[in-house]
Amino acid sequence: MTALEQRTRLEQEAWDALGVVMDPELDEAITSLGFVRSLEELGGQDDDGRGALRVHLRLPTSFCSPNFAYLMCSDAKDALEAVVRHHGGGTVLVELDDHHDSDLINRGLAADAGYRGTFGHEAESDLDELRLTFRRKAHTAAAERALTALLRARPELGEDDVHAVRLGDLLPGEVTAALLRRRSALGLSTADDAPVAVDDHGAPVPPSVVGMWLRKARSTRISIDGNAHFCRGLLATRYPGAELDQAPRDEGTAPVPVQLLTRRPA
Amino acid sequence: MYSKDGTDYFILDAHIALWDARPENLRNVHGKQFIDCFYDYHRNLSPESEHWDYDQYLYYSDRLMKDLFEDGYVDHAIFQPAILGEFYKNGFGQTEEALALAQAHPDKLTYNHAFDPRFGERGLEQLHRDAERMDLKGVKLYTAEWQGESRGYKLTDPWTYRYLEACRELGIKNIHVHKGPTIRPLDRDAFDVADVDAAASDFTDLNFVVEHCGLPRLEDFCWIATQEPNVYAGLAVAMPFIHSRPRYFAQIMGELMYWIGDSRIFFSSDYAIWTPKWLVEKFVDFQIPEDMTEYAPLTTDSKKRILGLNAAALYDIPVPEHLQVAPEPVDVREPAVKADNARTADSELLTGMA
Known about the structure:
The structure holds two protein chains of two kinds. Chain A is mainly alpha-helical. Chain A has helices at 9-18, 30-33, 66-86, 102-110, 114-119, 128-153, 174-186, 210-238, and strands spanning 22-23, 28-29, 36-42, 52-57, 91-96. The longest helix of chain A is centred in the C-terminal third of the chain and has 29 residues, at 210-238. Chain B is 39% helix and 11% strand. Chain B has 13 helices and ten strands. In chain B, the strands form three sheets. In chain B, strands 6-7-8-9-10 form a five-stranded parallel β-sheet. A three-stranded parallel β-sheet of chain B has the order 3-4-5. In chain B, helix 6 links the parallel strand 6 and strand 7 (174-178). The chains are: A mainly alpha, B alpha/beta. At the A-B interface, helix 3, helix 6 and helix 8 of A face helix 1, helix 8, helix 10 and helix 13 of B.
């Protein structure tokens, strides 16, 4: 990875742009996961004499799901092309290293073939549904984190009371901000008086099942966090030193707080 | 058997393998990538003292019995082979060698075999022959296995149902399904365990053991297993988190205990990705951290069930009386979700959420 102080202006903008490209399954940016192996500006490499950006991505195993791999690579390419356009144009090369479908994916990216164009008969549907599924999971996990933090701060609240919690009741901070971002991504209300415990479509969870909903949301959150532990560890095993490129995972890795959520179904 | 602090535990390792990933057995680069991935799992999640060198990891038949039964406290172990014929010339799991070992040590080893419904009628006939020759009580299905142009199948495919019907006739009652970290195939079945739900509902006389307890789709697994009493959780790959991420392991155990209880969870080392010795030792010493008050502590009886008694019961493997636990009292806690109880309406409300 190019050290921060050595980056050109274009490289820095490119890096910032990659900071919003998410691993959908881990709900975390590819830059903080250490998935960006290298990023460089190539002077005068383009046929038209314009600049070029080349990015190499790497994943924790060669068998990482090809659909997720493709999703991240194509999102990265989209993000970088926006940066390059802003600078008057140029070429963007995104290459995925060491994946069992590297050749296929890299050819598809170079040709802007799209997911179905890249994988042909194997891709039964486009990636929108997959993306939506993981956005919903990310929202559910973010709601659990925010409610758990609130329950911790207000011991008089029980699991079954969270149906009454509104966005404006949540504790200020990154956990709540993350929930609001994920709600926006799904087109859900971010108003202060909107209920926090809502389903994928924004409908409030009825009081009679809200405790169970929270338990289910917790297992979703644990799944996502656990997968992140897995992938971060495997990346560092596969590429020694990669851990230095990883930002601390700021959500969900904190110890489970002491006094929260002790109520169980009767 | 493992003994600690005056308590004896019957150990059944419900997921082991005897593989051959030496260069001469590789069919293509995917075979190399696959074993390298396994080796990374091994190095990432094992204590440093337990790391094998790479060459040893490629093939280890000389040490299997010692690792499991002399050093590893294991009383009985079950082979759960991945065949991966597209990647390895003579398969990844070594069928004949493992079967011979199981036949030489029937008190210690059970051989489960695999089928692939994409082989159609021919494979169905093979299954009948295998069941008789191998005395099969279970099969391990790797639904993401490549086969020609196909990169996976589902339990709900019509041909799979024909194979499951054959299992029912042949007395193969334990269906182990790999539902692990997301690998291939592509969009189909990339992230859900829903096909287990449907198959478990349609084959209530078969047991479905979800290996790796659905991680990283733990919530989908828990949801299904709560509703289907014939669905079980195999701890392969979840187990080693006990060393590297003990708090995360506690959360997994806490969730599984909450949703399905201690009678449907199986200890598995996934040998030779990990050796059972240190996993057994750490699990017996393990406790849910006190600050995780949303989870009940893990009792000694629960550990006994998970470490061996649950799988032994499913496989009719005899357990000495003194290693048993007292019969479980009737669970007074209301099941989290049961289609046939008063919460039906509520659980329907939740379906599709989260």
